Every structure is written in C-alpha cells, then in structure tokens.
Amino acid sequence: MLVAALSVPLLTVAGPAASLHSEDIENDWAHRQQDACRHMPFPNAEYVAAWAGLALGLAAVVVGVVLIKRIRRQYRDRLGDSWPAILTYISVFLFLCLNVLTVPMELITVYVTHSNAGSLVNLGDC
Questions:
Q1: pTM score, two decimals?
Q2: pLDDT tens digit string along 4-57?
Q3: What per-residue confidence (pLDDT) applies to 119?
C-alpha cells in the first residue's frame, strides 16, 4: 500500500512533464527543419511523449481510486483512528483532484500532436 501511495504523486507529476516534453520535441523539430532548409518527417518521439503523458495521468487516477477503495475497505469505521491511513487517504484524494486538472491538459496535448503531424513548417528564406 505504501508503494501505491507514493506512486500517485509521482505519476501525477510525470504525466504533465511527459506531455510538455512533446512540445519541446516539436519545437526542436521545427528548428532543425529551418536550419536544414528542407522538410523532415514528423518525429515519432513526439507521439510517444504525448501518449505516455496521458497514460501516466490515467494510471495515477486508477491507482489512486484503487488505493482509496482499499483504505476504506480495510479501515471502514476506524479510518479516523489511524493517522497513517487518514493521511494517506487525504493526500491521495488531493492528488486525484489535481489529476482532474492535468488529464484534460494531457488530452489536449495528444490532440495537438496529431493535428500538427500533417502541417508543414514555414522554412522562411532558403
């Protein structure tokens, strides 16, 4: 249970980090095209980063919900009597609330990645 409780914050932070990394990959791809003065194929690493961010965000939600259900089942009426259980329950719940904000951002990143795949970069004066 401790490993699951510690993985929720880690997954919550890693999801948006991976999604934001896909934007860095796209910017690097655009600059390389402008420097080379030719169009290059869209990088597959951007797809991987965008989808990994979404998968990590959804994994955080699944692990958090399973952990909260397990804590409720294990402690039932005695949840307020055990400080580690109540602390774990509250922290996982807060990170789940944060995931409500991050998962839509990760979905938007996946959409933007797929919509940018077909667009060409303006090469400027070559």
A1: 0.81
A2: 778 888 988 999 999 999 989 988 988 888 888 887 888 899 999 999 999 999
A3: 75
Residue 50: is it exposed, middle or buried by C-beta count within 10 angstroms (0-12/13-18/19+)? Answer: buried
DSSP letter for each residue of the chain: -HHHHHHHHHHHHHHHHHHHHHHHHHHHHHHHHHHHTS--PPPHHHHHHHHHHHHHHHHHHHHHHHHHHHHHHHHGGGGGG-HHHHHHHHHHHHHHHHHHHHHHHHHHHHHHHHHHTTPPPP----
Please state, as a whole number, how many other Cβ atoms lie within 10 Å of the Cβ of residue 47. 16
Q: Contact 19/78 with Cβ under 8 angstroms?
A: no
Residue recorded with tokens 């796209």: 26
Task: Give how far Cα 9 sits from Cα of 45, 53, 73, 95, Å.
Answer: 25, 14, 22, 6
76 in the Ramachandran plot: left (φ > 0), alpha (ψ -120 to 50) or beta? left
- Rounded to whole angstroms, the Cα distance separating 34 from 57 reads 33
pLDDT for position 126: 66
